[in-house]
Write a structure and sequence with these properties.
By secondary structure, the chain is of the alpha/beta class. The chain has one domain: Rossmann fold, CATH 3.40.50.880. It is about 25% helix and about 30% strand. The protein has a 10-stranded mixed beta sheet, sandwiched between helices. Strands 10-11-14-17 form a 4-stranded mixed beta sheet. It has a two-stranded antiparallel ribbon with strand order 1-2. The two termini are about 25 Å apart.
């Protein structure tokens, strides 16, 4: 179903802005919960999808793979590719026109620095931002996920201990302003590098997303988790850290950061950094706990429908 209009707090009607931030290695052959959700958000049979494989070293193969999956999941017949292989290519008006017509944009994995160097601040990059603000769903997996935030992790060490200068930030697309995203989070032990970023920029919310897992974010605020893993949220706004004094490579002091581990069915408010609700997901039961009292039965049923789980009782 196409994205529907949302009402902003000011009361003025505006398109619903939706991001699907995927931790990588999403299921492409089975139930494909995450990719199925992307196709649904893009409009299903009426979707017009654009694949951006620029981050990948195997761009042709990546395009063919995702196009085949989207077709299996009953996307529309219009699946186009936008693949600037240089920054100069990203000024091509034909590529911009494809994005301006899209109801869904999907950025593949690979090298996020390559992706952003080619498109951020170009007409292609601006067209992706423009598509987002007019209501097209913007999805990115792995490198494509990292590129969504204003400040993007472009490289860094892995491990559980946060260390001074263990990571490097570069410019991203700016679809998320106060959030920095890391992917393959559990599988590649990236807790330390994400926490090191938060420790040096305490106003940023760290978002670590496991493989085959996605954070669906509406209007830069409401986050819902789907998929097989979890989304970690690190809120360091009240934390104490020694990052101004620590030497390069030293373990960082980080005390008082709040960590949220959100599995599928969790809803979270990014602005307030609080849990909104949780629908426990099992194969044969749905149990409502926590703050789900503010969600309608239709809302909870929609989550269950999109993930293939049994909806909770009304």
């Amino acid at each position: 179903m196409p994205a529907t209009a949302a009402v902003e707090p000011s009361g003025s009607a505006a398109p619903r802005r939706t991001l699907l931030v995927i931790g990588g290695a999403e299921d492409k052959r089975g139930r494909s919960v995450v990719l199925r959700r992307f196709v649904r958000l893009a409009g299903g049979r009426r979707s017009r999808i654009v694949i951006v494989p620029t981050a990948s070293s195997f761009d042709t193969e990546a395009t063919q793979t995702y196009a085949a999956v989207f077709q299996r999941l009953r996307a529309g017949d219009s699946i186009a590719t936008v693949n600037p292989t240089s920054r100069q290519d990203a000024f091509d008006p034909d590529l911009v026109a494809r994005l301006d017509d899209a109801t869904g944009v999907f950025m593949t994995g690979g090298n996020q620095l390559k992706l952003t160097q080619h498109i951020v601040g170009t007409p292609v990059g601006e067209a992706i931002v423009r598509a987002y603000h007019r209501g097209a769903v913007i999805a990115g997996t792995s490198a494509g996920a990292s590129a969504m935030s204003r400040f993007m992790i472009s490289m860094g060490d892995e491990g559980l201990t946060p260390r001074q200068r263990a990571s490097q930030l570069s410019s991203g697309l700016g679809l998320l302003e106060r959030v920095v995203v890391d992917q393959h989070f559990d599988q590649r032990a990236r807790y330390g590098r994400l926490l090191s970023i938060v420790a040096t920029s305490l106003d940023l919310i760290g978002l670590g997303i496991d493989e085959n897992t996605a954070a669906e974010i509406v209007n830069e605020r409401r986050l819902t988790v789907l998929g097989a893993g979890a989304v970690f949220v690190i809120d360091g706004r009240r934390a104490v850290t020694d990052s101004p004094e620590a030497r390069r490579g030293a373990p960082l002091l980080v005390s008082g950061a709040v960590v949220h581990s959100l599995p599928a069915g969790a809803s979270f408010d990014l602005a307030d950094a609080t849990l909104v609700g949780f629908v426990e997901h099992h194969l044969d039961v749905g149990v409502v706990v926590g703050g789900t009292h503010d969600r309608s039965a239709a809302d909870l049923g929609q989550v269950a429908s999109d993930t293939g789980m049994t909806p909770p009782p009304a």
